[in-house]
UniProtKB/TrEMBL annotation:
InterPro entries: DUF362. Residues 4-180 form the DUF362 domain. This is DUF362 domain-containing protein. Pfam families: DUF362 (PF04015). It comes from marine sediment metagenome.
Length: 385
């Protein structure tokens, strides 16, 4: 039977509003022309929330989602820095607002937060909690065009690859399992699908999945996934130095570095050399100038490092000293004064992980100061000529 009413919507990326996205892309009139209603889930006056208790925490869902008869997930599959691909389980996380997606750093007594990658474990738990509250009735993993290299957003190193494939099914876990198998990624190599199996949230045995269409064994996709090391993101005059790092800071730094590489080439031309330090006890920077400390671990573990201070040498005027020494009665000795000062050419980006928008604003302000400094230097050189 035909649906009486169809709603289309999702929560936008943190820092954006659905209204702004809709106006920019012209989504709303297009959706309405097809007979559906575009919903602004971040407008709580129009779309109120309902609290749901799960695993000892409270998560608020839009009532329009919880009370819907059918839920369909249309998921665009691309590369992802943490999970290889943006499978539908990740897409289901957008059923709740960014407030409930945020992972709070919670260090367990006697456990190494970084070694265990507690951030990723907590993220997977939250994603599956949200998924289990309202499972979709139909899942569409669209990889007809697949963004490889760098993603899931479009960056300088991104490349769009046509695969002509779509994976569709009623069991999200099964759909994701088949999707990953197309890339020859096994269940054992997917942390989130392993946890979904442990929680019995869907079918995780391929023999139990009824396949219609292409032969799975004959269909294999070869793509370029995201870099595994931040040091492999190479761009103008920038040197990335990483210590021990959690998945949260890795993900945010991955996106920040790619944003810088893609959109800040003009700003970077004013910098001869800059070091991007991240993680616990990162290696020393390339120089004492233009040091970016990303995240609480990098900031706190380098508080007493040598690069935090600079040595300034002040000596007397050499010409005056020479004149005095020419005098026979002069007993003056050249005294050199050495001072230690705080290195002010360091940008700290706090948080675990830091907020991407705040980081961009801080860097833009810092680069603006550098541009002003270089303009003054160039003007001075012109006057001297």
């Amino acid at each position: 039977a035909e649906a009486k009413k169809i709603f289309v919507g999702s929560y936008p990326f943190n820092g954006l509003k659905t209204d702004s996205v809709a106006k920019t892309l012209g989504i709303q009139p297009y959706i309405e022309k097809l007979g559906a209603e575009f919903v602004f889930l971040d407008d709580q006056n129009k779309y109120p929330l309902k609290s749901v208790e799960i695993n000892g925490k409270t998560i608020e869902f839009p009532k329009v989602i919880l009370e819907s008869d059918r839920l369909i997930l249309l998921n665009q599959v691309s590369v992802d820095p943490l999970f290889k691909c943006t499978i539908s389980l990740l897409n289901s996380y957008s059923l709740v607002s960014n407030q409930f997606q945020k992972i709070q750093k919670n260090i367990r007594s006697g456990k190494d937060y970084l070694h265990l990658d507690q951030y990723k474990q907590d993220l997977i738990t939250n994603i599956l909690d949200v998924f289990s509250v309202k499972k979709p009735n139909l899942v569409i993993n669209d990889l007809f065009y697949f963004l490889e290299g760098a993603g899931p957003f479009i960056y300088k190193d991104s490349n769009l690859k046509a695969t002509n494939l779509i994976v569709v099914g009623s069991d999200a876990v099964a759909v994701d399992l088949i999707t990953l198998r197309l890339f020859e990624i096994d269940l054992l190599n997917s942390d989130i699908l392993l946890e979904a199996r442990n929680r019995s949230l869907g079918i995780t045995d391929i023999p139990n999945i009824k396949l219609i269409g292409e032969n799975l064994e004959d269909t294999k996709l070869t793509v370029d996934f995201c870099v595994n090391k931040l040091e492999d993101i190479n761009f103008k005059n920038t040197y990335v130095k990483a210590g021990r790092i959690c998945s949260g800071c890795f993900k945010e730094a991955y996106h920040l570095l790619n944003l810088m590489k893609t959109h800040m080439t003009k700003d970077l031309k004013y910098i001869i050399k800059q070091s991007f330090l991240i993680g616990e006890k990162p290696p020393k920077p390339e120089s004492l100038e233009n040091i970016i400390l990303f995240g609480d671990c990098a900031i706190e573990s380098t508080e007493n490092r040598d690069f935090r201070k600079i040595i300034i040498t002040n000596s007397k005027n050499y010409l005056e000293t020479a004149k005095k020494k020419l005098k026979k009665d002069s007993k003056t000795q050249d005294k050199t004064k050495i001072k230690e000062k705080v290195n002010k050419k360091i940008v700290e980006l706090p948080g675990c992980p830091p907020n991407r928008i705040d980081c961009l604003n801080s860097l833009i302000s810092y680069y603006a100061l550098l541009r002003g400094y270089h303009c003054l230097i160039n003007q001075s050189r012109t006057i001297l000529k």
